[in-house]
Amino acid sequence: MLTVAAPALDHLAGSLIQSVDWVAIAPPLVPAALALVVLVADLFLPPARKALLGWLSVAGLVASLALLLPLRSGHRRTFCLPSPTLPGPTHGPTSCSYVADHFALAFQLLVLGGALIVALMSLVSVEDDRLPAGEFWFLLLASTCGAALLPACRDLASLVVALELASLPAFALVALRRDGRGGEAALKFFLSSVTATAVTLLGVSFVYAASGSLYLDRIAAALPNVPGQLQPLTAVGTVLTLVGFAFKTAAVPFHFWVPDTYAGAPVPVAGYLSVVGKAAGLAGLAAIAVLGFHSYGRDWGLALAVLAALTMTVGNVGALRQRGDAPHSAVRLLAWSSIAQAGYLLVPIAAAGYGASPGAIGATVAFALVYGVVNLGAFAVVTSAGTRLDEYRGLFARRPAAALAMAFFLLNLAGLPPGVVGLFGKVVVFRAVVDAGMGWLAVIMAVNVVIALYYYLVWTARLFQPAPDAVATGRRVPSALVGALALAAALGVVLSVDPQIVLQLASGSLFG
Q1: How confident is the model at residue 17 (pLDDT cuts 50, 70, 90)?
Q2: 193-202 CB burial, b ≥16 within 10 A, e <16
Q3: Are the beta carbons of 446 and 312 closer than 8 angstroms?
Q4: How many CA atoms lie within 13 A of 62 on its CB side?
Q5: Phi and psi dihedrals of 173, rounded to 5?
Q6: Segment 39-65, tens digit of pLDDT
Q7: Are 56 and 45 within 8 A, CB to CB?
Q8: Checking DSSP bridges between strand 93-100 and strand 76-82, what pairing results, if any?
């Protein structure tokens, strides 16, 4: 018979029984609970009252954003384990699965705020595209929960689970469109993402075999001391894990699914994937690289720099090829633009590994916040004005407010005044790469910024060109869509007036 002394049992119980900080996990928990409520309520609501599910989802996302406020001044941890090297329960936790630091809160603000704008856009699209309301809102809230969880996860198992929770409902969101394109787009997205997940899991298993832990802080401590015979396994595991998360950011060569998926999905869902989905992958990539694999920083830093250069170049060249009369050309142009923007977002992460201050991650957070606001604003205009570029010719004569808003969003994406916040975001990224001593990448970025000016300015010029139907008034824009546009435009204007707000939100790095 096996006997265990009482002190040992007490220590074991202390290791297994953990307290949960409900305040820390409340922001992603609300969408999860609300998703179940929506799914059950859909069974009992008559068809004429299905619209209530959308407004309930909007209210829940507003509540999730409000629950970030109690966390803004703290560094809260939960689901923690005591240090294995310090006996006794009095030494406190050292490895935690969930950490609500400044980095996590900034990305959660982007995810939940972006999901709120998408929800306002979707109130219109669900009705116009005849999407099943209960399923749509359940899937959107479930995906938002995973995307909000991911920035705070600090072990590989939680990161992979949160990433799949964000991705799996997104496949179904794309497929909800019933005109035939949705199924094809979802299949491409699904097959590509499943392959990336398999690669990630293989990499995680290699890293666990070499380090003996799934916690990022323990992996970081173990990797420099890995025995020589395990070094190849460690290197391969590191590469495979980073590759899997790079796919979620639509980095080249893992970008091929993006244009067709965005064009086949409902427009709000395409906007969701371009901002919220990308933010989730980017947060996971930054956390794993900087916190877990920083001892290999020079290696993955250079690799990510090359990846960033290829991504921004391929994205901009793809955007140049979009013709105004092609079906869904506006959505496809924004899809290629989002690929190019992913390249800029990868640059500060590469700089953090290559030799810049760890605070360079703050540049990624700042640029992601800027990009999220203006890109969702552009998708909101596309939702109301049309998916072909030719439909924007003379838009100012028909709908001046929408045209001015679209011009503002496009100029922000281009980094031109009066889009001050867009220019500010690019300057922050340039500063990070220069501080890292990667002058060659700064030159490639500058060239790509010039290339992007062309297609952004051409689209902007279309808005103010005369057109045969310039006197047409167009259909009335629903109030929910006006609200999404107004929210995105107001945030863009506020950040342009005081762009330092972005740096204040992003001031906490992964090491902060």
Answers
A1: low
A2: beebbebbbb
A3: no
A4: 8
A5: -60, -40
A6: 999 888 888 888 889 899 999 999 999
A7: no
A8: antiparallel
